[in-house]
Design a protein that fits this description.
Layout (H helix, E strand, L loop, with lengths): L36 E9 L11 H17 L5 E7 L7 E9 L1 H12 L2 H8 L3 E8 L18 H27 L6 H31 L5 E2 L5 E2 L2
Length: 233
């Protein structure tokens, strides 16, 4: 595919028929598999003509491109998550899928993602700047904490991937539920609607549904936030 950087891993999966809505299997492996490594699948995205971020592309990619792969390989993935970012820097707007799996699982997953026609469409429409996939260079690569923020305490680094996998799974479920409400809209309009709906859910319900219940788990203790104020939820 012209203009896209892909990784050849020497394995292919049987082509899958396209699906408009694929639900993620909630099954998870009982333990992390020997020989696993962390893998990154990254989509670097362009800003629009007004130099604004088209943030709807994240939910679109997660649902239309990645969710069928996650569903197919869910029982063989130890951990997985999404990451979104768009600072005004050299990388800019990037959506990432990060997962822990052995090479025999990662190879067909990445191959399936790389040949999806949606990649070609996103590039042709000027949305996709670069697609790339690679294995972490962390040692050991199977360390559960290998992709966590190194500034955190070791125990947070080790346990955080479980938290963010659950959060990513819930977010994807919200995306899919909202997308199913707008089946007649064209692809981009549908996920603009999804993004708008999720923005409202986050604004109106995030404080109680997320922050309050996390606070409850930790005993309603105060915490220091970025501003260094003390807050409770």
């Amino acid at each position: 595919m012209a203009g896209l950087l892909t990784v050849l891993l020497g394995a292919c999966a049987t082509p899958q028929s396209p699906a408009e809505s694929v639900r993620v299997d909630t099954a998870s492996p009982s333990q992390e598999m020997e020989g696993s490594s962390w893998w990154y699948v990254r989509f670097r995205l362009a800003r629009n003509a007004d130099d604004e971020v088209d943030s709807f592309l994240g939910p679109l990619i997660a649902d239309q491109l990645l969710s069928p792969v996650i569903a197919q390989y869910a029982s063989r993935l130890a951990l997985w998550r999404f990451h979104r970012r768009w600072p005004d820097d050299d990388t800019g707007h990037q959506f990432s899928f990060i997962f822990l799996a052995p090479p025999a699982v990662a190879a067909p997953m990445i191959a399936q993602i790389g040949r999806d026609p949606l990649l070609t469409r996103l590039e042709a429409d000027g949305h996709l700047v670069e697609y790339r996939a690679h294995k972490t260079n962390a040692e050991p690569p199977s360390d559960r904490a290998a992709t966590s923020d190194p500034s955190w305490s070791p125990v947070i680094q080790r346990e955080w991937p479980k938290f963010i996998m659950g959060a990513s799974r819930m977010w994807l479920g919200l995306v899919q539920s909202e997308a199913a409400r707008h089946p007649r809209l064209d692809l981009y309009s549908r996920y603009r609607k999804v993004e708008q709906s999720l923005d409202k859910l986050w604004y109106n319900e995030g404080n109680h549904a997320f922050f309050h219940h996390l606070s409850a788990l930790f005993g309603y203790r105060p915490l220091r936030v970025i501003r260094r104020d003390i807050m409770t939820f």
